[in-house]
């Protein structure tokens, strides 16, 4: 069975997880049926599924990449609609974690499903061999476990568990479909309790909680060392338990204890603290309750974030802890776990238990260490997997594993065989032929690289850059395509990047077919380097700033009119100057989670690298396509300039609102609606396929490539500007716009209306760019704009002045 044969999907169980899985399948553009039981006395027999779909539209973070995706989900119930399962290619069960309930449902499914359809469970606690017990061989052959992580849209991990009877073609079909269509990192797990990520993650959380209590480490101190210093999200231990739900932790622990081997370390460390029992009884179950280890106190009309005292259960105001160990972690993981303060001791106690436990589980839970590290990175958002963390303990010639073995022996603690084997060379090595990992027998094998899902890191292992400076590098990614990588902080654009762009144009024009712009980084580009702008402004280097703005305009225009295709591979944030780069590319290969927009007004300026003119051109074109009838009427009265002005205003107003309100797309789907992605652009669901997909798109565009023609644009001038001013004045009077908002918005209005031109005098792109540059330079000199830039650099949030 090919993954392309999966066209229709059913999800049974419309709780939080079931509905979110259905929503993400809809994000992939597939129709999905969402079924649940019929509530007693319900006005609508489909009420549970209907309510679940409604919640998808209001839940934050949004499960849907676009609200219209909800229309792809059809509600139903298992009494009236069970027969419709015969139309489905994949049926996903997400009902209560009770074996008898699931098996009763499976028998009903088996009676109606079509031959060869796939059935899977999203269970995280019940083993596969129990689920298929006493079920027909035909069912067992088509059954597997597909364990999604919550929330399914954002968490890339999918744990795949198959049985000895599961057909191989079914496994391949699901693996390919969830990878390409749903954007999942598929990890094969063995049929063991908790699989991989939760087996390890729940142990880590329990140890983190209990050791903090034992060592009298505060909640905020524990999270300060168990978060960023080790490459874990800032939720760390206690913030993550709050997010999961404190009341769920005992349930998860009990389900683990019911199936774990008798000698499992989890059994030895597990406890149920009285404080946790009391918090649950009092409704302090985490974010979904009145609060948890952290809470927001809203008494007296003031919001104060508070944290619980693990000794007495009282809350007090959250203060950022100042632990030397957390600062020492900047010098490496060993510096953290060897630091003598309470944070260092806590980090060692938790991490050493984690390292021992995880090393003892391979090959019980997975065939290799790659699967374990992948599961923790993708399931818990860790920057490094457990075995990668162990390697990071290394210093000089001594491997992390060797140092860990030595310290564990000094403390008379167990040393797993796998850890001992890694002492000489470590768990991962870099050799001339690429990156290798240690197999369970102690040998080293090459890390697999998918030619359809590679990273720049893979390219770098065996090659040198074609060109490089302090801000960017060019890499030959094969087949005549060059890739430009930004290397600045947050990939912000500075003069060095602009210089490398011009160098890339010269090199590609001579020796290559096309250029892709992208990196392995989380974010594509957060915009121009604000630090450079503020420094230059503080020393009154206005000429330097204007030169950079002109250089950016010229460079982006050179990319737009280069004699080869330029494809930007966008992911994460593509803001300000990064968004303008997308607009000047021939096409964008966007990851589904691309958050893009022209946000310059937030720092007191307007787009200065062609964003205004590009958005105007796109808005005009979109309006032309949508309003043919009005366009014909406009041509009939072509001599009347006020008719042309009226026709132009919807497009100008649309761009004004988007830039003036600093709108940012919440997905690639929304970016399309905002005209940030053109018709040639495509969306990649799996982040790891992004660069390969961008390269393929560039190759396709390179065939018979033609340089785009330079357009002319007709703008209404003062007539349109006065109309925009009226709207701005209304916002100011109503209190929706600040004093400096008014200043910035009116400058934006001048540019978008065309300055002092009129509708009968078409303008070139360069003429609009000159208006853009002049407005930018006037605003950058304004003290309130400089205050906004300084505030953004200091706190990362816009200043409302």
For CATH, the homologous superfamily of the largest domain is named as: 2-enoyl-CoA Hydratase, Chain A, domain 1
Helix content class = 40-55%
Tally of domains: 3
Low-confidence runs: 633-643
- The whole-number mean of residue pLDDT values reads 94
CATH class of the largest domain: Alpha Beta
Structural Rg: 29 Å
Q: In CATH terms, what is the fold-level topology of the largest domain? A: 2-enoyl-CoA Hydratase, Chain A, domain 1
Structural class: alpha/beta
Major β-sheet annotation: 8 strands, mixed
Give me the count of strands.
23
Task: Using brief descriptors, characterize the structure shown.
23 strands; alpha/beta; seven-stranded mixed beta sheet; eight-stranded mixed beta sheet; 3 domains; Rossmann fold; 33 helices; 801 residues; 13% strand; N-(1-d-carboxylethyl)-l-norvaline Dehydrogenase, domain 2; 2-enoyl-CoA Hydratase, Chain A, domain 1
């Amino acid at each position: 069975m090919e993954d392309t044969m999966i066209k229709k999907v059913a999800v049974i169980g419309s709780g939080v997880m079931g509905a979110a899985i259905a929503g993400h399948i809809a994000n992939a553009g597939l129709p999905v049926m969402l079924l649940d039981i019929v509530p007693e006395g319900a006005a609508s027999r489909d009420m549970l599924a209907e309510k679940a779909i409604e919640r998808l539209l209001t839940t934050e973070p949004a499960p849907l990449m676009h609200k219209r995706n909800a229309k792809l989900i059809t509600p139903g119930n298992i009494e009236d609609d069970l027969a419709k399962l015969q139309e489905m290619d994949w049926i996903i069960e997400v009902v209560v974690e009770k074996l008898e309930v699931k098996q009763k449902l499976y028998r009903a499914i088996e009676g109606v499903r079509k031959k060869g359809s796939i059935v899977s469970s999203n269970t995280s606690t019940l083993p596969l061999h129990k689920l298929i017990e006493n079920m027909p061989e035909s069912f067992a052959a088509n059954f597997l476990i597909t364990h999604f992580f919550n929330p399914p849209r954002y968490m890339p991990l999918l744990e795949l568990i198959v049985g000895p009877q599961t057909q191989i073609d079914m496994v391949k079909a699901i693996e390919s479909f969830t990878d390409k269509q749903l954007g999942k990192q598929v990890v094969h797990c063995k049929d063991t309790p908790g699989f991989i990520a939760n087996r390890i993650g729940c142990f880590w959380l329990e140890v983190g909680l209990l050791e903090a209590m034992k060592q009298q480490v505060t909640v905020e101190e524990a999270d300060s060392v168990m978060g960023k210093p080790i490459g874990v999200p800032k939720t760390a231990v206690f913030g993550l338990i709050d997010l999961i739900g404190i009341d769920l932790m005992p349930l998860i622990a009990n389900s683990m204890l019911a199936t774990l081997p008798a000698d499992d370390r989890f059994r030895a460390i597990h406890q149920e603290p009285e404080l946790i029992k009391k918090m649950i009884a009092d409704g302090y179950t985490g974010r979904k309750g009145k609060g948890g280890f952290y809470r927001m106190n809203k008494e007296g009309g003031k919001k104060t974030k508070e944290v619980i005292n693990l000794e007495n259960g009282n809350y007090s105001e959250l203060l950022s802890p100042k632990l030397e160990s957390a600062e020492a972690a900047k010098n490496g993981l060993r510096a953290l776990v060897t630091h003598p303060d309470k944070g260092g001791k806590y980090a060692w106690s938790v991490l050493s238990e984690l390292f021992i436990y995880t090393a003892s589980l391979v090959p019980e839970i997975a065939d290799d260490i790659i699967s374990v590290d992948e599961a923790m990175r993708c399931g818990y958002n860790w920057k490094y997997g457990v075995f990668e963390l162990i390697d990071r303990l290394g210093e000089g010639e001594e491997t992390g594993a060797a140092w860990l073995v030595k310290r564990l022996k000094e403390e008379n603690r167990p040393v797993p065989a796998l850890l001992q084997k890694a002492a000489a060379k470590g768990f991962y090595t870099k050799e001339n032929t690429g990156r290798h990992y240690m197999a369970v027998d102690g040998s080293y094998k090459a890390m697999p690289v998918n030619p359809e899902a590679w990273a720049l890191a893979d390219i770098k292992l065996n090659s040198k850059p074609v060109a490089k400076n302090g801000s960017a590098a060019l890499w030959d990614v094969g087949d005549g395509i060059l890739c430009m990588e930004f290397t600045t902080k947050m990939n912000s654009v500075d003069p060095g990047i602009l210089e490398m762009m011009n160098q890339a144009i010269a090199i590609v024009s001579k020796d290559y077919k096309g250029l892709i712009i992208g990196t392995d980084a989380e974010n594509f580009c957060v915009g121009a380097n604000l630090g450079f702008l503020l420094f230059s402004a503080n020393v009154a280097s206005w000429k330097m700033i204007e030169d950079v703005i002109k250089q950016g305009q010229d460079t982006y225009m050179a990319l737009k009119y280069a004699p080869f295709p330029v494809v930007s591979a966008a992911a994460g944030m593509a803001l300000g100057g990064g968004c303008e780069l997308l607009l000047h590319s021939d096409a964008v290969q966007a990851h589904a989670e691309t958050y893009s927009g022209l946000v310059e007004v937030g720092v007191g300026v307007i787009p200065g690298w062609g964003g205004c003119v590009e958005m105007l051109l796109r808005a005009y074109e979109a309006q032309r396509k949508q309003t043919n009838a009005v366009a014909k009427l406009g041509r009939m009265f072509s001599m009347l300039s006020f008719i042309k002005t009226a026709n132009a205003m919807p497009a100008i107003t649309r761009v004004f609102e988007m830039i003036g309100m600093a709108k940012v797309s919440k997905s690639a789907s929304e970016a399309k609606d905002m005209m940030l992605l053109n018709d040639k652009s495509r969306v990649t669901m799996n982040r790891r396929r992004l660069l390969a997909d961008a390269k393929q798109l560039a190759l396709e565009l390179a065939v018979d490539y033609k340089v785009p023609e330079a357009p002319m644009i007709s703008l209404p001038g003062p007539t349109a500007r006065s109309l925009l001013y009226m709207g701005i004045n209304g916002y100011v009077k109503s209190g929706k716009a600040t004093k400096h908002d008014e200043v910035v918005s009116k400058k934006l209005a001048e540019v978008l209306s065309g300055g002092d031109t009129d509708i009968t005098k078409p303008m070139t792109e360069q003429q609009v760019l000159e208006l853009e540059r002049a407005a930018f330079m006037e605003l950058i000199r304004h003290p309130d704009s400089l205050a906004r830039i300084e505030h953004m650099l200091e706190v990362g949030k816009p200043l409302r002045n």
